[in-house]
């Protein structure tokens, strides 16, 4: 019953276009189910993600928000026993169609993880260039350009421009996370998925990452999973609230945080549970 | 006093007895090793001469001569064996760590463990039937294949263990960049495990370097320099065996020297393996 209601709700929201000004949806998800073996982690979720907006997914631990995010660039299926049903359209194209190579999807939909994981055997430069290099780009000038552009976009260039040969792991935690963002940006994605990108960082680094997300919005569509409601309220344009694998409510961020339509959303954002 | 005196004394005695037992066990374990090492060094040092490393074996009764051909032969056999054992072992290990979760993986793992426990002479017989009989001659190639087969399970299981230690986050980070699975496996996962894999390869080389049985009827032996890949080749171990069972004092001395050199090679490889296994901050 709730699933039906979610569907009705998200269909209504899709018509209402929560972001308002932009008419384009970058991602459209229809009745998405995700499983880990027998665990049914995402239960029939439908949502549309606006282009050049930041969409926050909030919800208590274990509600399936990270799993949902990983379904958007076909990273869910790399876990043994994982399975996906439903449709995800990227610019109108079904990314789960049988002829689609997940590799091409992941180049268009980048991802940043909770814990920064720079490649330990590589320098800062090599880390950023990795995506292009391992895809076969050999042209040194093109690599140089991509590395500088990505590091600038990730607001890390000024801090590392004289130390590009140093190991990526020699940077601080916050710098490592920005390095990982630069690494993801270097391959030129249209969408960036961020899975609690600041939860392992100190407040100063967190605010840098948030600021960065706001600037990246100009060129990218961002979906950010967070358990930090202040963060969702600060950075996002639209917010989706998930509970037990289902979408409870989705709308413009101010509305979700000030006039939620569902009492469970209200309970969650006011800190009564979760 | 918190503990009654009697209990305290009993504990103290138990503690002393147990400590003494542990020490005794260590002595029993280490004593043979030390005495073997000491005896080989004592007996072998006199045979270590310049000629030993540079000259061919001398005919019986002539005296002098060396084992240069056997030393080169052992190194050649190790190189040949590595050509077989390292690629198969590493790719097999990657398969086990990355894909081989199911029944097939279980069987491969089981087979590798059994192969690891197969007496080396059996591997020799197998290669004799497979390579020597059809070729109608003993050859360096057959010796290399026999030793290579012995390397496979060792390299495969170490690679698997080392690749499993690579954090999943690294693999996912690479996949999420749109890097294909096989490139991720070879250039990110294996790269992160390189130090451990090198250690495994070196330990496997140290292990096969000291093998005699699989060479007896594959590589055979020769008193001369190696004549070709399809010709018999000398090795320190087989030469040592032949010299040790011969009735000449001069040959015995050289056999001891060969034992010492062999031990030194294994020791160097083990130390090098340890050094390679140490975590590095940046590898090139």
User: What's the quaternary structure here?
Assistant: heterodimer
Strand arrangement, major sheet of chain A: 6-7-8-3-9-10
Average pLDDT figure of chain B? 88
Q: List the secondary-structure elements of chain B in sequence, H or E.
A: HHHHHHHHHHHH
By CATH reckoning, the class of chain B would read Mainly Alpha
CATH topological fold name of chain B = MetI-like fold
What is the CATH C level class of chain A, in words?
A: Alpha Beta
Q: What is the CATH architecture annotation of chain B? A: Orthogonal Bundle
CATH topology name of chain A: Rossmann fold
**How many DSSP-defined strands of chain A?**
10
Q: What best-fitting shape of chain A do the alpha-carbon axes yield?
A: globular
Beta fraction of chain A: 15-25%
Based on CA atoms alone, the radius of gyration of chain B comes out at: 24 Å
Please give the CATH architecture of chain A.
3-Layer(aba) Sandwich
Describe the structure.
The complex is a heterodimer of chains A (274) and B (284). Chain A is α/β, with parallel strands linked by helices and 274 residues long. Chain A has a single domain (51-77, 101-269), classed as P-loop containing nucleotide triphosphate hydrolases (Rossmann fold, 3-Layer(aba) Sandwich), CATH 3.40.50.300. Chain A has helices spanning 2-16, 65-71, 102-108, 124-133, 140-153, 157-160, 173-186, 203-216, 229-235, 253-258, 263-269, and strands spanning 25-36, 39-50, 54-58, 82-90, 93-94, 109-112, 191-195, 221-225, 238-243, 246-252. In chain A, the strands form two sheets. Chain A has a six-stranded mixed β-sheet with strand order 6-7-8-3-9-10, sandwiched between helices. A four-stranded antiparallel β-sheet of chain A has the order 2-1-4-5. In chain A, β4 (82-90) and β5 (93-94) form a beta hairpin. Chain A starts with a helix and ends in a 5-residue tail after the last helix. With 284 residues, chain B is mainly alpha-helical. Chain B has a single domain (68-277), classed as Orthogonal Bundle (MetI-like fold). In chain B, 75% of the residues lie in helices and 0% in strands. In chain B, α4 crosses α6. The longest helix of chain B is centred in the N-terminal third of the chain and has 40 residues, at 5-44. The model of chain B has no long low-confidence stretch (mean pLDDT 88). The A-B interface holds A 73, 75, 78, 80, 103-108, 110-111, 113, 115, 117, 119-123, 130-131, 134-135, 167, 169-170, 180, 183-184, 187 and B 101, 167, 169-180, 183-184, 187-188, 191-192, 194, 281-284.
